[in-house]
Fold this protein.
Amino acid sequence: MNTVPKTIWHVGGEDIRFRIPLLLALRDRGFNVGAVGSENGDAFANHQIPYYRYTLEREINALADIQTRTQLFNLFSKYKPDVVHGFDTKPAMITPIVAMKAKIPGRVRTINGMGYIFSSNSPLALTLRPIYRYLQRKASAAAGITVFQNLDDREYFRKHKMVKDGCDDLVLGSGIDIEQLIKNRPNPKQLAVIRQELGLEEQLVVTMIARLVVSKGVMEYLDAAKIVCQQMQGVKFILIGPFSSEGRQAVPIEAVQQQAKFVSYLGIRNDISTLLSLSDLFVLPSYREGMSRVLLEAGAMELPLITTNTPGCKDVVQDGWNGLLVPPRNAKALATAILQLLKSKDQRILMGTRSGIHVRENFSLKKVADSYTNIYYRALGLPHLEQHQLNKFRNEVNYL
């Protein structure tokens, strides 16, 4: 089909590898795909996806940001992808502006959440909000389409005129490859060995996976673990994820070490399917998300979920149906919710089953890839494809 864009590039940061399943699904739809990120490209090489590395710093750094823009401009000018698509806070602001200067016809960006600036009421966060709004308006003006992962963020951008009328869209997450998650799940014998290795035999396991920053609710998780373990025996809390270098937002290693009696910190792990398989309950007390990937992965693995009643979290959990919602920054409320589900196996099983159904029906990789296929068509000014056309096109590509 000659209307399909030749090349789609995803531009992100140190975790751009999480876009690989979506890139593969887009490749199955006939696109050539590539990625630009700040991590090493080993994961992309395994899938024969062209990968280009650039310099990106999370913190505000004028010299580093100039270097970032220059590197992106050189890449875009040299390879001329048809569409560049920026993910994460900085790439989503920088990518469309640089792409417009490099004369890239299709410019798309996804708002993966509004992070610290909107989850905190600190003087610094309040000071940065007007600057954030100004920068986002500039990025929206350069982008053909700005994509949101939840309704709250979309409404905020519209209310503050941070996005052009008719130039936005809503896609719930980046797609969960449910089949791959299930495929990676260990068998019962393997799971028993891992339980023994981690000291989790005969234990109810509560799991949290996140970067160790304050806004993910790590401190509340640590405090809630202590409360629960003081009231109930046979419970083990595990925490997985990298420590952060984000200044005041970083959770100090001492805070985790102090709660080692109640929480086992496992560091960075690649066996997420395994860890979710041995869990009885998944918890993410984040202050705000775009659309939480780990909540969706845990839901896909049919776990009951406890999270906060905040944007990007409440979109995954229907309170009392597939999990429980608690107020952010409230360790006592979090502990109460955890205790409620730990004491009821029937409730955990029912909620976990519903989580699997909810994720499969609303957040599947297929659904997200189909949505982005049409968004890329729109960004290039081409007619979008109806669902029956998408199905027909996928069949034609698979046949070839």
Observations:
- DSSP finds 17 helices and 13 strands in the chain.
- The two ends are 12 Å apart (CA to CA).
